[in-house]
C-alpha cells in the first residue's frame, strides 16, 4: 500500500529561523513528488520534483528529491509569519493521482 | 483563483440523507480528482476521472459515487450520510488537453457537516 510520512507533524519557530520539512514515501510506480501549501482552504502548488538531486528554488523556499532513498525535503529560510500553514507532500504515481501525507503544521511567531 | 469551481461551499444535512457536490474543472483540463479532508487530517484520495472515464479509485466508500459528464464537470454523490462523513471535500483538475503536467489545481472545497 502506498505510504507517505511527513515529519515533524508540527513546528513552532520564530521569524527569521530556517526550517526543514521532511517527507518519506513508498509509492508504486512513482512518477513525481509535489509540495503544496495549505492555509485556510485550497492547497496551493509550491514545487514539482521529478529528478533526484536537482534542487528547485522559489524565493526563500527550496526542495530536493532523493529517489534512491525515497524522500524529499522542503527548506524555508528566513521564515515569516506568512509562512504559517500546513505543508503537504504528495508523491504521484503513474495514474497521475497524488497521494498526500498528513502534512507538517508550521507556525511562525513574530 | 485556481479556476476550479466547487458548489456548494457549505452544506449542512442530517444523517441518512444524500447530497451531491459539484465541480467544474479549469477550462481545458480533462482530469478531475476528488479528495476528502477530515478534521486535522491530510487529503484522502477518493476517485479520479479522465475525459469521462474513471481512471483511479482510492478508499472511496460504497455509499459514495462520482461521475464526470461530457462537458467535463463532475459530481460526487454521498448517500446514507453518517456523522463521520463530515469533512471538506476538494475537487482538483489537471491535464490541459490531455497533457500531463503533474500539478493539480484545487477548488476551494465543499464543507459538509452531517448532524
Describe the structure concisely.
The complex is a heterodimer of chains A (110) and B (115). Chain A is an all-beta fold.
Descriptive terms for the model:
heterodimer, A: 110 residues, mainly beta, 5-stranded antiparallel sheet, 5-stranded mixed sheet, 0% helix, B: 115 residues, 7-stranded mixed sheet, 4-stranded antiparallel sheet
Structure description:
- Chain A has 110 residues and is mostly beta strands.
- Helices cover 0% and strands 57% of the residues of chain A.
- Chain A has no helices and ten strands.
- Chain A has strands spanning 3-7, 10-14, 19-26, 30-38, 44-49, 56-58, 61-66, 71-76, 85-93, 104-109.
- Chain B has 115 residues and is an all-beta fold.
- At the A-B interface, strand 4, strand 5 and strand 9 of A face strand 4, strand 5, strand 9 and strand 10 of B.
Topology:
The complex is a heterodimer of chains A (110) and B (115).
Chain A: E1 3-7, E2 10-14, E3 19-26, E4 30-38, E5 44-49, E6 56-58, E7 61-66, E8 71-76, E9 85-93, E10 104-109
Parallel strand pairs in A: 2-10
Antiparallel strand pairs in A: 1-3, 3-8, 4-5, 4-9, 6-7, 7-8, 9-10
Chain B: E1 5-7, E2 10-13, E3 19-24, E4 29-37, E5 44-50, E6 53-57, E7 64-68, E8 74-78, E9 87-96, E10 105-106, E11 110-114
Parallel strand pairs in B: 2-11
Antiparallel strand pairs in B: 1-3, 3-8, 4-5, 4-9, 5-6, 7-8, 9-10, 9-11
